[in-house]
Amino acid sequence: MLAGRNSSALVAPAMRHDEAVLPSTQPEFFLPFMNPGSEDAMEMNYTSSILRFIVVGLVLAMLPVPLGATEPGAEWNRFRGPDGRGVLDQCKVPLPWSPSDVAWEIELPGRGNGSPVVYGDRIFLMSADPDTAERYLLCYDVATGRELWRRSYPSQPHHLHQRSSYASSTPCATEEAVYFSWGSPDSVILKALTHDGKELWTRDFGRFVSQHGYGASPIVYGDKVILFNSQQAQQLPPGVEPGQSRVICVDARSGETLWETPRTTTRACYGIPALFSTENGEAALLFANTGDGIFALRLSDGKPLWNQKLLSKRSVSTPQIAGELAIGTEGSGGGGNVLYAVYLHGDHRLKFKIARSAPYVPCPVVKDDLLFLWDDRGIVSCVDLKTGETLAMKRVGGNTSTSPVIAGDRLIGISEEGTVTILTADPKLEKLGTVELGETTRATPVLRPDYILLRTNSRLIRVGRP
């Protein structure tokens, strides 16, 4: 209870769409017979400028997601919500909340660490039987918590890290479908279903090799589903062949492969790519892994654009984009965690790095010019993004595997023991209160204007009454 204190099967036809990219700036032009200073030339130039303004506006409207901004009322349809930032500007839920604020609480089948997502009036998430590894794809009603449908897929038990689960991935939902992924030593599955649970297509990308188990989550940009299939080549048991890491892009409606980009295989990494616009106006994806460092691929065809090979350890968190900076982390269970901030454009040089109390598993979160870090040992830092200077640091305690989120002016973090801690999202890091969930928690919350969803190991909770 809550206690409050202050080779694949393709079954859908392929439907492709042209990729929209931001146009680069074009020089002024004149017809050859015109004098550049004449009235005709000036009128032609003025007209062409208006036309270019209209075209740019139309292309911007066609981009798959906003670049660096969250649309008002956007769905929390992927890990850490719109554009993966983990920020909601306005939330009416009392923080901290009291038991009377809890609308409903339900028991889930199985166990899992993956986060829920929301599209419209439906919640989607994954769970799994901890003994048999059978996966459960689940859908619930937002208002009541009533189960709307469940799909079960048998699997084989295999080795996991003690803090992992057979359901450590987060689905991604669009208007047309919801996408789930899971892995085992024999297969990496990517599956698309309708919002009513009807299977659209399934892909199996072959064997998966890692030390700790599967944790990759799909992401959708426009008509493309992206899956970072990062695998292990180091520190493997005798007789185990290394895996093969690659970024996979499939058509969202058919599951047909659009492109694959091989990546350096060292250690399995788990971050979800972030979308940004290059200096030339092309849509691109930001990643982080051990073998290639912080790197970018072009969204349209997967072409590698640049990389900074700064990492030597595993990268678990999702990379973040903060204005002109690309942020990635590395670390290990034994420590040595480092956060790197490199320039997103230009020469991509390192601007600053943070080695003190940097997170390994939890993702950083950005609000305005402040970077908040909630490390795995429960130490919270506030960093000035302009300088890399640590402005404040507070120990709240507890081991932490969830990623912090920001609701309005509140910073929310959850320990593995299930303690929700609320701090001010500013350099004061003032502690406002805690709430006990009463169970192991490794999933990141869902933030909506009127409610918050929390997933513990075996339960789903809505805070904020309809």
- Count of DSSP helices? 1
Structural category = mainly beta
How many discrete structural domains?
2
CATH topology of the largest domain: Methylamine Dehydrogenase, Chain H
The CATH homologous superfamily of the largest domain: YVTN repeat-like/Quinoprotein amine dehydrogenase
How many angstroms separate the termini?
20 Å
Task: Please give the radius of gyration in angstroms.
Answer: 23 Å
The outline comes out as globular
Q: What's the pLDDT, averaged over the residues?
A: 87
Sheet having the most strands: 6 strands, mixed
The tally of strands reads 34
Strand content: 35-45%
Instruction: Give, in spatial order, the strands making up the sheet with the most strands.
Output: 1-31-30-29-28-2
CATH hierarchy, class of the largest domain: Mainly Beta
CATH architecture of the largest domain: 7 Propeller
Poorly predicted tracts of residues = 4-72
Textual characterization of the structure:
The structure is a single chain. The chain is built from 1 helix and 34 strands. It is mostly beta strands and 466 residues long. It folds into 2 domains: 40 residues, no CATH class; 400 residues, 7 Propeller (Methylamine Dehydrogenase, Chain H). Strands 1-31-30-29-28-2 form a 6-stranded mixed β-sheet, with no helix packed on it. Strand 26 and strand 27 form a beta hairpin. It starts with a strand and ends with a strand.
